[in-house]
């Protein structure tokens, strides 16, 4: 039973602020809404936020208007109402409409408040909770304890001492077999259930206890494992649900499976009778009964659906009232309480639409009422046309079974008279969530049906094997128990993976449980009040201590990573690794220890490489620590002090100046000429001007001009601000959380290799089973057939595939390294070869990340500037393309040089700047006319007015110390601001009054440059008189003389346009993703060929307003995403992947790292990229050339071509081995090749030749065609070559025997033909899909050497005496090689025309064309 107890309440109280745990709030959004609605109306409460995710409330109040004691009374009354609603049987509305509830609460509080015995805040000390006092539910059940303990103890015992005599005695087996038959055959089980009802016995308990006891006595570990799983599920379901969830005798086995159980019962009884009559052996009949037993599917089906219910409810999936996952899979009819629940204002409701899309075609839909007179005839037509659903009346044909019907209503009221007390029911608002559960239920139903098919195959094959006593009854029972356990395990894995608690997508709004408010939209006073701080005095020690408890330290911490050993062991879960391990085991079991050990070494090396790749993300997150400064200056307790930055808390007042790195997310309250480099977040290198003005709530991150973010740094000015977020709750912390997400997606290569391996694994197992059964039926000994089938299975498994792929990828990595591209992840190149989209950051990737002046305009002339970046090589040309002298130009360049605090410098042969990028562009421009600081060192700066956002200008006073006469005021800034202070302009070296027409002309030129996405600066000056020692400079901005303007841009890299064009030719669409302005991005995109004007440009703000579905619809028509945040970039990459694209993401900044990590291939720039980006990326370009990406695509496609050839070589040889062995055994012929020859053949033909094909060092041409590793064309080649070689080898074997040759000679001929054929085909595969002729590939010394080694090995095994005995061969006469070489050669020569003939018989399908901008 349950009882109500009390526990300490989680509460934090600060002056005017309280955060506390509220009874009933957790996971209940309705309670959160009611609480906020009620308490926001109470006088004195400033703000209230109820968080249903954490179950806590944050409440701000005015202590002068309402005391904490009165507030606690309101909260107590609210909780009492909740408590009564949950635990009393009275029919009441509980929490009423908030106006009525507020009135009732006020009355009660007023009465209590007058009482003198009020106990202050003591009410907050405890909170009621429901405590389960039933010890049996908490204690591990005895059957579970016995089965798990028995499994462990008996497993250890058998490992060291084997099974006991009692366990080997047949009696326990007979008893367990009887129980298995009784519980598996439906008619026997129903008979026992009737007996149970008459005798009032607990049959389940009796049979369960008997099964457990017999399993323990027989020491049957497989049965014990199955019992443990079932017992554990039942125990956890009871714990989780605490009620009987099998409502109204819920069924969990579908009629189809029940029908199959009945059919197999009849079949099993009949087959057992026939077997007994023929063999006269009861063990044969018992074996047939056990083999035909449908128990595996019946047991696993019931377990699967119960497990699904348990996991779904635990994960809080949406399920109907009185319903289950099984019921959702069986729904045949949906009844709506009213037609208005389907249609609203003439349209299908969104909630209903989502659910209808998941229903099976033909599902019936009906309504009970039609209060709003919906057109039912039109509705019926629409439902059938759009969803293939049948709108019908409730009549005799309507489904009656409760699990086949779902009832949909506006509001569920749990009364016994209501329809919801019987049928599974759901509220209309929950239908979209139910649609997801419905989809999962249908997928699970497919799994159950697959299990049923697998069981039916076993029932038939098991019966065939058991009837003639080829396999004993205990072994049949072991197989059946193993199948049951396998199905249980599969169901457990599927439900936990697909129905378990989902890994939440990281949403920025969450940031843990700390509230995230639009700090940038709050004015300074409101912010200071909200955070309970003081501008002058800061926080007190008590506030700091409380805040540290609430928010923690200001540290960037990632999720704790598992130990490297755990990561290493996890590598062995991959399917190809399992194949390699299985093959290694089979090789060792069949006597080939060396082969098994070699494959084990390869297995361990592959796992080591995978571990290293996985753990690189840790280094990336650790590198993020560089963005948090060690110390910072704060105001606390009225004192200015320096503290460690990790001790900052929200509410701290922080002082910053130029050169400081921002230690947390800060809202400015004072700013003097502040500029901040935000490239770590936005990726844009230009400093951003900051101020204290409030901005709109929906402004993008890069436009929040009153915020400073952790990891950015001040390049100019001084600032004072309030800390609003710290540690993992900051924007930089959010980046860390994105980087810390698990990488669980498979690469395209892994998916395809797994698919190929699974296909051939199944084929190998089927071939091995067929050969085994056929051999037994033909009278071969069991030992011989076990060895042969194991060897054949081992040979058919493409165990060389993982190793071949690893070698091919490694060779490609070395080739890319020569081209100065570092590939950090083994499969990255192959994935890049498949890429359909390249998402590229603009700044530093497509552009140089170096501002460059391109245009100069004076009143009477215009100049074009050549050269890019900070390299001072270039020319300033007039409109005729000539270098002309101009006094205005010279004056402009001198102003630009002297009115600047940035220097141009050369380091390690590379030009760069120290200072502001905009000023760097101007200094570089001056250097192109040899106006350098070195030849202007006689000019002395007397005064400076720094840039500020109000004036929009920077002004200096400079004097030439050579003549002591030339003294000028020099200004630069926005053209509009400069013109406001100008009264004259200069033309041809002379001064003229600035008229309205001239001013309009200048502004038009400014607008023209701006439309070209140029950043424009104007220049002006005024001569002044200055006396030595004078320090007072007044009215500097008066009567300035306008000189001209410059237009600058971050230019594209010179080779980018060519690379973009080449990418388009390869069928790859480039997309620009940038934090820059859309106009600037579009100008660059048009210049380099990414966008031609027909595609869309989407901003981050527009992206925020789109749903995932809307984005998926338009994303293929977008060429530019501008003004985006790191999270936007991540969302874009994920959406493209959902659309089926293989995405490569390039970038250089920290802001690119999450998207780079998520992309199929992440590419970092080596020169401009941050260390975080490089650690995250799969590939690093040492020279930052976009063309290197295109080279990587070609290299990847070449690797795919090489792997394709190696795969074809492997599979065609394996197929030939399967054909010759299986056909010979089925036809009753002797084995053409013995197990030792099969394994030797794999070594000679799969090892060196396939590896050389994979590396293909002699091929100097690059593949540009996109193709798959395996497709229909390859499989046609494989089948053709395999059939020709297998049939030819078998024909020579049969002819040799018919010609009187010994069996050993015939086997040697077959063996030599298979090996020679595969070696000849290696040459043929080498030439496939290439224009090379025999002279080209014959020069490939690697291929010739590898094949030479294999040929010599083949001849050695045949003609060297000691090896004859080992491999079962004999020396062949020279004449015997003629037919061997003829068959071997023809299998390669004839394969091509035959395969082409098959292709001609099929209609050609045009390859899909990629639509690109």
TrEMBL record:
The keyword Nucleotide-binding applies. GO terms for biological process: intracellular potassium ion homeostasis; intracellular sodium ion homeostasis; potassium ion import across plasma membrane; proton transmembrane transport; sodium ion export across plasma membrane. It is a multi-pass membrane protein. It holds the Pfam family E1-E2_ATPase. InterPro entries: ATPase_P-typ_cation-transptr_C, ATPase_P-typ_cation-transptr_N, ATPase_P-typ_cyto_dom_N, ATPase_P-typ_P_site, ATPase_P-typ_TM_dom_sf, ATPase_P-typ_transduc_dom_A_sf, ATPase_P-type_domA, Cation_transp_ATPase_P-type. It comes from the Bacteria. It is found in: Cell membrane. Keywords: ATP-binding, Cell membrane, Ion transport, Magnesium, Membrane, Nucleotide-binding, Phosphoprotein, Translocase, Transmembrane, Transmembrane helix, Transport. Residues 518-592 form the Cation-transporting P-type ATPase N-terminal domain. Belongs to the cation transport ATPase (P-type) (TC 3.A.3) family. Type IIA subfamily. This is Magnesium-transporting ATPase (P-type). It comes from [Anoxybacillus] calidus.
């Amino acid at each position: 039973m349950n009882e109500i107890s009390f526990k300490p309440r989680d509460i934090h109280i600060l002056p005017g602020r309280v955060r506390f745990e509220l009874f009933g709030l957790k996971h209940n959004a309705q309670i959160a809404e009611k609480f906020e609605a009620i308490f926001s109306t109470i006088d004195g409460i400033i703000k209230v936020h109820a968080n249903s995710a954490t179950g806590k409330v944050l409440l701000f109040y005015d202590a002068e208007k309402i005391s904490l004691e009165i507030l606690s009374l309101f909260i107590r009354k609210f909780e009492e109402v909740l408590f009564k609603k949950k635990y009393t049987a009275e029919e009441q509305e509980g929490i009423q409409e908030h106006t009525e509830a507020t009135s009732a609460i006020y009355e009660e509080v007023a009465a209590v408040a007058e009482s003198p015995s009020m106990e202050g805040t003591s009410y907050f000390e405890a909170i009621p909770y429901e405590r389960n006092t039933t010890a049996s539910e908490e204690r591990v059940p005895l059957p579970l304890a016995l089965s798990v303990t028995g499994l462990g103890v008996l497993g250890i015992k058998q490992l060291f001492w084997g099974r006991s005599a009692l366990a080997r005695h047949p009696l326990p087996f007979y008893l367990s077999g009887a129980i298995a038959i009784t519980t598996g055959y439906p008619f026997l089980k129903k008979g026992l259930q009737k007996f149970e009802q008459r005798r009032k016995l607990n049959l389940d308990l009796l049979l369960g206890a008997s099964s457990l006891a017999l399993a323990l006595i027989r020491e049957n570990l497989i049965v014990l494992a199955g019992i443990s799983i079932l017992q554990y599920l039942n125990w956890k379901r009871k714990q989780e649900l605490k009620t009987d969830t099998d409502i109204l005798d819920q069924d969990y086995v579908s009629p189809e499976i029940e029908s199959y159980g009945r059919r197999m019962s009849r079949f099993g009884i009949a087959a057992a009778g026939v077997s007994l009559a023929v063999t006269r052996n009861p063990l044969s009949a018992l074996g047939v009964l056990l083999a035909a037993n449908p128990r595996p599917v019946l047991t696993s089906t019931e377990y699967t659906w119960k497990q699904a219910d348990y996991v779904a409810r635990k994960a809080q999936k949406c399920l109907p009232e009185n319903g289950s996952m099984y019921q959702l899979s069986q729904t045949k009819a949906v009844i709506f309480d009213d037609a208005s629940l389907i249609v609203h204002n003439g349209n299908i409701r969104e909630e209903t639409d989502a659910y209808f899309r998941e229903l099976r075609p033909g599902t019936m839909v009906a309504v009970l009422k039609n209060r709003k007179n919906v057109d039912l005839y039109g509705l019926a037509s629409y439902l059938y046309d759009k969803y293939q659903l049948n709108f019908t009346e409730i009549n005799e044909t309507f489904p009656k079974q409760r699990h086949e019907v779902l009832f949909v209503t506006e509001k569920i009221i749990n009364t016994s008279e209501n329809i919801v007390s019987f049928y599974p029911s759901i509220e209309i608002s929950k239908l979209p969530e139910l649609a997801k559960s419905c989809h999962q239920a249908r997928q699970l139903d497919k799994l159950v049906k697959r299990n049923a098919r697998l069981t039916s195959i076993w029932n038939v094959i098991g019966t065939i094997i058991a009837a003639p006593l080829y396999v004993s009854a205990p072994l049949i029972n072991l197989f059946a128990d193993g199948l049951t356990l396998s199905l249980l395990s599969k169901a457990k894995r599927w439900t936990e993976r697909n129905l378990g608690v989902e890994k939440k997508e990281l949403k920025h709004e969450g940031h843990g449980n700390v509230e995230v408010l639009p700090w940038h939209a709050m004015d300074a006073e409101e912010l200071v009040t909200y955070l309970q701080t003081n501008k002058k005095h800061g926080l007190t020690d008590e506030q700091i201590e409380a805040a540290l408890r609430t928010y923690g330290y200001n540290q960037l911490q990632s999720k704790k990573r598992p130990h490297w050993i755990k990561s290493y062991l996890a590598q062995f879960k991959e399917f190809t690794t399992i194949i390699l391990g299985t093959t290694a085991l089979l090789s060792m079991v069949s006597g080939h220890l060396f082969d098994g050990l070699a494959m084990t070494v390869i297995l361990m090396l592959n796992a080591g490489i995978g571990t290293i790749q996985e753990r690189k993300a840790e280094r990336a997150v650790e590198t993020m620590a560089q963005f948090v400064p060690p110390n910072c200056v704060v105001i606390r307790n009225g004192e200015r002090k320096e503290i460690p930055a990790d001790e900052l808390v929200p509410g701290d007042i922080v002082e910053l100046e130029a050169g400081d790195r921002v230690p947390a997310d800060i809202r400015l309250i004072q700013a003097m000429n502040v500029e901040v480099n935000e490239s770590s977040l936005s990726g844009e290198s230009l400093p951003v001007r900051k101020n204290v003005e409030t901005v709109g709530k929906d402004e993008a991150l890069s436009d929040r001009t009153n915020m400073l973010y952790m990891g950015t740094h001040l390049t100019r000015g001084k600032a004072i601000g309030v800390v609003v977020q710290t540690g993992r709750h900051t924007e930089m912390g959010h980046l860390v959380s994105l980087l810390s997400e698990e990488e669980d997606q498979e690469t395209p290569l892994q998916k395809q290799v797994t698919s190929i391996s699974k296909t051939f694994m199944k084929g190998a197992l089927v071939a091995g089973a067929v050969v085994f059964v056929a051999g037994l039926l033909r009278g071969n000994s069991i030992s011989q057939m076990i060895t042969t089938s194991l060897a054949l299975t081992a040979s058919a498994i493409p165990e060389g595939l993982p190793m071949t792929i690893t070698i091919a990828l490694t060779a490609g990595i070395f080739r890319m390294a020569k081209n100065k591209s570092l590939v950090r992840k083994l499969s990255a190149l192959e994935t890049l070869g498949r890429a359909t989209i390249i998402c590229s950051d603009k700044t530093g990737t497509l552009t140089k990340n170096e501002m460059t002046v391109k245009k100069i305009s004076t009143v009477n002339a215009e100049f074009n500037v050549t050269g890019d970046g900070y390299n001072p090589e270039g020319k300033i040309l007039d409109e005729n393309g000539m270098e002309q002298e101009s006094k205005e130009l010279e004056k402009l360049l001198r102003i630009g040089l002297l009115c600047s605090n940035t220097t141009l410098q050369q380091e390690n042969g590379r030009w760069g700047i120290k200072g502001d990028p905009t000023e760097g562009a101007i200094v570089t421009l001056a250097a192109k006319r040899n106006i350098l600081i070195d030849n202007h060192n006689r000019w002395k700066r007397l005064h400076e007015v720094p840039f500020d956002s109000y004036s929009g200008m920077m002004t200096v006073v400079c004097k030439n110390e050579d003549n002591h006469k030339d003294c000028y005021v020099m200004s630069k800034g926005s053209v509009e601001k400069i013109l406001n202070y100008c009264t004259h302009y200069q033309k041809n070296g002379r001064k003229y009054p600035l008229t309205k027409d001239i001013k309009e002309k200048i502004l038009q030129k400014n607008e023209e440059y701006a439309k070209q996405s140029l950043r424009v600066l104007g220049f002006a000056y005024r001569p002044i008189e200055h006396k030595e020692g004078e320090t007072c400079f007044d009215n500097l901005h008066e009567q300035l003389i306008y000189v001209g303007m410059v237009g600058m841009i971050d230019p594209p890299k010179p080779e980018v346009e060519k690379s973009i064009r080449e990418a388009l030719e390869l069928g790859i669409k480039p997309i620009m993703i940038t934090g820059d302005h859309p106009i600037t991005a579009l100008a660059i995109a048009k210049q380099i060929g990414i966008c031609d004007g027909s595609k869309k440009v989407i901003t981050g703000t527009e992206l925020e307003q789109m749903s995932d579905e809307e984005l998926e619809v338009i994303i293929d028509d977008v060429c530019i995403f501008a003004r985006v945040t790191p999270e936007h970039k991540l969302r874009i990459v994920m959406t493209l992947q959902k659309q089926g694209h293989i995405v490569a993401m390039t970038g250089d900044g920290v802001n690119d790292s999450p998207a780079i990590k998520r992309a199929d291939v992440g590419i970092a720039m080596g020169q401009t990229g941050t260390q975080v980006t490089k650690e995250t990326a799969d590939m690093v370009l040492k020279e930052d050339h976009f063309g290197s990406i295109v080279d990587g695509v070609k290299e990847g496609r070449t690797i795919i071509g090489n792997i394709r050839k190696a795969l074809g070589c492997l599979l065609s040889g394996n197929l030939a081995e399967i054909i010759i062995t299986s056909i010979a055994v089925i036809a009753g012929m002797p084995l053409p090749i013995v197990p030792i020859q099969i394994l030797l053949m794999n070594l000679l033909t799969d090892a060196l030749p396939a590896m050389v094909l994979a590396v293909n060092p002699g091929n100097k041409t690059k593949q540009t065609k996109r193709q798959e590793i395996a497709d229909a064309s390859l499989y046609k080649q494989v089948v053709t070559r395999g059939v020709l070689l297998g049939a030819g080898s078998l024909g020579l074997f049969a002819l040799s025997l018919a010609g009187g040759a010994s069996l050993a000679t015939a086997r040697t001929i077959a063996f030599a033909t298979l090996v020679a054929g595969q070696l000849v085909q290696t040459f043929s595969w080498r030439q496939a899909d290439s224009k090379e002729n025999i002279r080209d590939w014959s020069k490939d010394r690697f291929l010739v050497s590898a094949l030479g080694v294999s040929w010599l090995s083949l001849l050695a095994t045949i003609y060297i005496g000691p090896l004859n005995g080992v491999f079962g061969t004999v020396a062949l006469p020279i004449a015997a090689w003629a037919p061997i070489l003829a068959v071997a050669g023809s299998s390669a020569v004839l394969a091509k025309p035959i395969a082409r003939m098959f292709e001609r018989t099929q209609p050609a399908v045009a390859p899909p064309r990629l639509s690109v901008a």
